Structure formats: C-alpha cells, structure tokens
C-alpha cells in the first residue's frame, strides 16, 4: 500500500504557530552568562557582548525529576531525554523518581524532593491540577519548579513552564491540509480527523487549531473519531472511520503512537486514496514518510523535559540567557510545531522516538 503523497510543489511549511500563536519561543541555553563588568562610559547595550560560559561547569546542583509512567513511546522519550540531558553536565546531580500515573504517589515524590532540599525540580505531572498544591509548596520553600507539558492550575506553582504547542499542532496540520488541497486541485475535499482522548484539553486544543486553520481555506472536518492514544484504539477507530467514509482525501491523526494501529487499519482495508498526516513525530511515522507511505507528521517535541533540565540547571545556578535581551530564564516557553515531510524528514529523524 502506498498512501497518496504526490505534490506538484514541495514547500517546507514552517509552523504556522508563528501566525496563530505569536508568543511561541524557541530558546537556546548555551553561552549566555551576562557580562559582570560595568559598561564603559557611553557604551550601549549593543556594545556589551555576553560573557558566555553557561556550558562550562559551575556549582554542582541537585535536580529532582518526576514524570508519568512511560506507557507509550512519546512519554518514554520524554523521560529518557531528561536523563540523557542531565548526564551531559558534570555539575548536575539528577535524582529521578519512579515513573507513575498515580497522582498521590507523585505528590509524595515531590514532598521527598522538598524534604531533601534539592536545588530545582523538573516535573511532568500526571495531572496538573492535582500536583499544583505540592508544586506551590516547593516554590514557597525556595525550590524553583520547571513545569513540563501539563500545566498547573496557578502560575505560582512553577518558576518556568515548558509546553508543546497543541493548538499549533492543529494549526500546522490544517494549514498543510489547505496547502495540499490547493496544490493538488482537490474539489470538495473530504477531510477526516482521528483525535486522541476527547476529554483532555490537549485534544480539544489540537482539534480547535485544525478547525480554525481549515476555516481559513473554507473547509471543515467531514468525518471525526476519537481514539485513546493506544495502538489498539487507533486501529479500532480508524476502521470505524473508513467504514463510515467510502472516500477520503485527507486524514489527520493526532498521535503517531496510536498511528501504528491507524496505519494497520488502512492496510487491512486496502485504502490508500488519501493524504495521511500524523502527529508527534515518531520514528515509525518518519520512516513511512521516507517510504512514501505517509504524507507528513506534525512535531510535538519529546525534548520538553530535556529542555526542563537545562533550564533548571540555569535557575539553580542563578544564570540567565544571553539569547534574549532580558537575560533571565523566561517564565513560559512554547515549543514549535513544524510540519515534517519528505522535504525535511532527514533533519528530524535522528530526534524521533520509537513507538
């Protein structure tokens, strides 16, 4: 089976989050220690280059990391990337709590970090609302908390929050779908969507972004099902979708982990008339793109916790960021959601996660 991937004009679509979410930041964390000497008389800010040295070993700091159970590939990649990033720094001692989907257990893990007096905490909460109170206690104890992926209920619970762009994923997918419709001259396109868990805000945000972007080219979603971020649910719901829609032009599947099952359903049904767009950026998806079995995937970076480790180190060492005029670590960082297709898949494949 070869899912349709013909494109008269191949253009790399940079994330339309820049259009729809201008607040997104992509931040580097190296060589950004502010200059300590007083500026020379008459010197301007532009005359003063930062001193650098953030990658050089500094005061040893202890960072506590807690994340949810890695029950699918993206979460496993999140946890692994955090550990791997900490190992790059000889001045970081990482204390990793046992991965869990039990909010009460994770609360006790953070309490242990507080009692041990760690210098910073990187936390991907099982549930942002339930972990808000204990994270706030950590902050009140003078321990900076870096909140990853799932937001707390109050900004007082974290010094810095690092997020993937769920709304931006939908915008990127929808804008790319509009591009495919225009480039291929598709009249009255049938557009389908395979979402994740509908009760989750992240799924709602992805769907809203997709709908908003499609509205920009006068299109709507014709057929929609929701899966559960698992291979089994992906196959089941994709099969239901295919049975309900005898002809489809474009399908966006929110999650590449469940996409393994989605792709199996396509193969089982012998359906290949549509452009298949995925989400998250798994290695499976990128290999399918290389093989012509998939059109594109929308990146949801699994490096968020690794970025969290870097920023926690800077915060614990009282360092800032020279990549910004304001040298302090930002309070909120939203990562980009670019389209990965045949034009740029080689660039992103080394960073992909296995489902």
From TrEMBL:
Leader sequence residues: 1-21
Pfam families from the UniProt entry: Peripla_BP_4 (PF13407)
Protein location: Cell envelope
GO cellular component: cell envelope
Record-given protein name: Sugar ABC transporter substrate-binding protein
Entries under InterPro entries matching the protein: Peripla_BP_I, SBP_2_dom
Segments for region (Disordered): 31-61
């Amino acid at each position: 089976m070869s899912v349709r991937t013909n494109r008269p004009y191949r253009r790399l679509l940079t994330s339309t989050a820049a259009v729809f979410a201008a607040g997104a930041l992509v931040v580097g964390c190296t060589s950004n220690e502010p200059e300590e000497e007083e500026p020379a008389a008459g010197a301007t800010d532009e005359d003063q280059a930062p001193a650098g040295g953030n990658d050089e070993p500094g005061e040893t700091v202890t960072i506590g990391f807690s994340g949810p159970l890695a029950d699918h590939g993206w979460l496993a990649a999140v946890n692994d990337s955090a550990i791997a990033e900490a190992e790059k720094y000889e001045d970081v001692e990482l204390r990793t709590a046992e991965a869990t989907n039990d909010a009460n257990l994770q609360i006790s893990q953070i309490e242990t970090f507080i009692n041990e007096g760690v210098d910073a905490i990187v936390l991907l909460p099982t549930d942002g609302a339930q972990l808000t109170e204990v994270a706030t206690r950590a902050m009140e104890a003078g321990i900076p908390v870096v909140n990853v992926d799932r937001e707390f209920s109050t900004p007082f619970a974290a010094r810095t929050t690092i997020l993937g762009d769920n709304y931006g994923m939908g915008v990127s997918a929808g804008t790319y779908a509009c591009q495919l419709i225009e480039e291929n001259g598709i009249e009255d396109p049938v557009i389908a969507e395979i979402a994740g868990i509908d009760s989750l805000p992240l799924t709602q945000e992805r769907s809203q972004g997709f709908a908003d972007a499609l509205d920009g080219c006068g299109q709507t979603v014709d057929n929609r099902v929701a899966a559960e971020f698992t291979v089994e649910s992906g196959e089941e719901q994709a099969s239901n979708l295919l049975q309900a829609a005898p002809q489809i032009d474009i399908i966006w599947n929110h999650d590449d982990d469940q996409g393994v099952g989605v792709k199996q359903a396509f193969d089982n049904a012998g359906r290949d008339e549509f452009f298949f767009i995925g989400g998250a950026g798994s290695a499976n998806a990128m290999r399918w793109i290389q093989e012509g079995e998939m059109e594109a995937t929308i990146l949801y970076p699994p490096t968020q916790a690794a970025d969290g480790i870097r920023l926690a180190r800077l915060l614990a060492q009282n360092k800032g960021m020279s990549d910004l005029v304001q040298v302090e670590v930002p309070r909120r960082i939203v990562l980009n959601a670019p389209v990965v297709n045949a034009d740029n898949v080689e660039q992103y494949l080394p960073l992909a996660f296995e489902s």
